[in-house]
Amino acid sequence: MIKANDPSLKSWIEVDGNSDFPIQNLPFGIFKTGQDKARVGSRIGNKVIDLNALYVLGYFKNLPFEQSDFQTDALNTIMKKGKEATTDLRNRLSKLFDEKHTDLSNNNHHVEQVLIDVDQVEMLMPVQVGDYTDFYSSRGHATNVGTLFRDPANALLPNWLWIPVGYHGRASSIIPSEQMIKRPKGQTRPNDDQDPVFGASKLLDFELEMAFVTFDGKPLGENITTAEASDYIFGMCIMNDWSARDIQKWEYVPLGPFLAKSFASSISPWIVTMDALEPFKTEGPKQDPKVLPYLEYEGDFHYDINLEVGIKPENSEETTVCNSNYKYMYWNMAQQLAHHTINGCNIRCGDMMASGTISGDDHSSFGSMLELSWRGSKPIKMKDGSERKFINDNDTVIMRGHCNANGVRIGFGEVSTKVLPAQ
Amino acid sequence: MIKANDPSLKSWIEVDGNSDFPIQNLPFGIFKTGQDKARVGSRIGNKVIDLNALYVLGYFKNLPFEQSDFQTDALNTIMKKGKEATTDLRNRLSKLFDEKHTDLSNNNHHVEQVLIDVDQVEMLMPVQVGDYTDFYSSRGHATNVGTLFRDPANALLPNWLWIPVGYHGRASSIIPSEQMIKRPKGQTRPNDDQDPVFGASKLLDFELEMAFVTFDGKPLGENITTAEASDYIFGMCIMNDWSARDIQKWEYVPLGPFLAKSFASSISPWIVTMDALEPFKTEGPKQDPKVLPYLEYEGDFHYDINLEVGIKPENSEETTVCNSNYKYMYWNMAQQLAHHTINGCNIRCGDMMASGTISGDDHSSFGSMLELSWRGSKPIKMKDGSERKFINDNDTVIMRGHCNANGVRIGFGEVSTKVLPAQ
């Protein structure tokens, strides 16, 4: 048991029982307040912790960091220091905010400089993403897509059970929660026997995904094994990997999705560390056929993370449209990373790798409107009486995720994105 | 006519008639010498020009640059200043090294600090690549691939003549000329009715491509038109976009090539500016069917760049296996950039976009071994008597490119990469 995960720990900062951010979480993010510069923060309850202030006040003595690591617009600076350093940093925070330690809590003048109400801060992109990779690792999703677009009898393509299929995504358009997006425009071909047309996408969709960010990897030409994978993963966030289904359908053969995805991928702003997620590891599915040796793994690499998606029409109430779980993955992060590097591909500090849409067996757990509305044939009822086949203009899509074990709830907060009309 | 392109210009630095680097070129790159730090350089003949030294010696007065822009390991610092600034910088170099100007040439002490023999420097990656996009814009290549793998009667897929098809590539594994690569390992399925196997790729291939690098673009949600495209493109290099055909065949459905490409893409180290390439613009092919309005363009956006590929077996002579030209592109850079951003996708300073394999109509102009050896059925004879269907261990693949017009030859130098055996 990592000490900072001890369920008996309590912070001197008040934390609501339903909060995603007890002292056992201590995620990392980038925030700013008003005109101040961006800096590194953590969070307990409804308080954001200013790590730059803690550094300046001398609370990070004997840790391998400099002030510029905290006065920065991306967590890459602290991630560059590696896993041991970031684990030590989280442990130091755990100690500083533990009710049994009074170094900081007794110093009101310091507390005032360090803690900020969460509604006073703007959360920014947590990481400068180098390369973004999107996997396709949920069997439920791959089966649904194969059933909808190809052959229900052979829904999974021949390679799917052998390879954690993935593809390169667009890093520049990964944006934090709260940043609004515009409905994308592009080429579609509504009728197979007519010429394509140009216009706003009519089939805008969300994709419920989880993403992880990496530390610096090995040099080009070397691979990372499943046993080594944990050393290279810093933490996770929720991702809404926006998709324009009509653009995708016309463009994706033979080189894969491109503009149907690259207009935006939204993420939750707090990176929850793998250290914090350790207690929520769970067994993965039996993999049959037996995977090739480089994809075998020991121990548990799946995580029990409850996920939900809500749609909030403008001036109306939110309707939950999906309840899912990250444990529904067929391929886990260790296998994804081992596969990604088996050809010698190098990973770098700040790379982001997403799960692909997460869908369970049950219809209510499907992670996209494509699946939930079964390609538009089963519209979803909203609380306000309206229906959705896909996402409408001015809808806000909200994804949330949290784990529960040993009486401790750790969560990711949310990624919330409003869709503006095409320009 | 841009003044720095004037064919009558001569430098006080001696330049061989066959050099790729007359004073009309003045490309940009990153170099280092011995233990010194990386810095920005240009080149005339066999001399590398140290731009950091020129800055320190005061030759860049009234240009919008700081020393840190030149004492850097990536051209992004100067590209961040935008097109006008980099054009002015090249014009300043043109003046300093023009035989009619003696400010610098008369100062031997300065000349010694500024010029370095090309064989004394190590050329590094010129650009920190944000996102890397690979297009598929040569009709010859797309037709050949379609003929080999699908249906000769319908070689082009239905979207190909409507869309500059492209996909996201891996930025981390883009490497400069001279960096050796290892043959990649991975999953392949040699027989469709048997399970896949793991091992070194047996079908390692080069892909002859040209790539361009971008200035900062517009914010997420806005597009760049074909008419605006020139303002966002800094310059070009040659790219060998390595491919493992057997890995690709098994992995690429339905999300496109992934590990078959991500182990390495090699580039020539000098970025030749679009300003320098201006005199080599040429008309593109007639596009039929007529493209959608956002892909229409005025003026010429194709470039007449002679390209060649050689294979040099170890301890043996090089054999030229391909003579091609960049003008064989169907879709041009303006169309590629307009398409890439039509959905609102943002481009950033340092993004790299490659052409896709460039193949002309003639067999000798095919830009990959897959096409040259027609999937292995027509082995290529080397000068040493050996044969190649694909690339062997310890082969060095060398690509070169240059333009000729008005008595001026401007080139890219070469991208040369030796293939080591799998580890």
UniProtKB/TrEMBL annotation, chains A, B:
Pfam families: FAA_hydrolase, FAA_hydrolase_N. GO terms for biological process: homogentisate catabolic process; L-phenylalanine catabolic process; L-tyrosine catabolic process. Pathway: Amino-acid degradation; L-phenylalanine degradation; acetoacetate and fumarate from L-phenylalanine: step 6/6. Mg(2+) binds at residues 241, 261, 265. Its cofactor is Mg(2+); Ca(2+). Transmembrane segments: none annotated. InterPro entries: Fumarylacetoacetase (IPR005959), Fumarylacetoacetase-like_C (IPR011234), Fumarylacetoacetase_C_sf (IPR036663), Fumarylacetoacetase_N (IPR015377), Fumarylacetoacetase_N_sf (IPR036462). Keywords: Calcium, Hydrolase, Magnesium, Metal-binding, Phenylalanine catabolism, Tyrosine catabolism. Residues 133-418 form the Fumarylacetoacetase-like C-terminal domain. Substrate binds at residues 136, 150, 248, 252, 357. Its EC number is 3.7.1.2. The active site is at residue 141. Ca(2+) binds at residues 134, 207, 209, 241. Residues 24-126 form the Fumarylacetoacetase N-terminal domain. GO terms for molecular function: fumarylacetoacetase activity; metal ion binding. Belongs to the FAH family. This is fumarylacetoacetase.
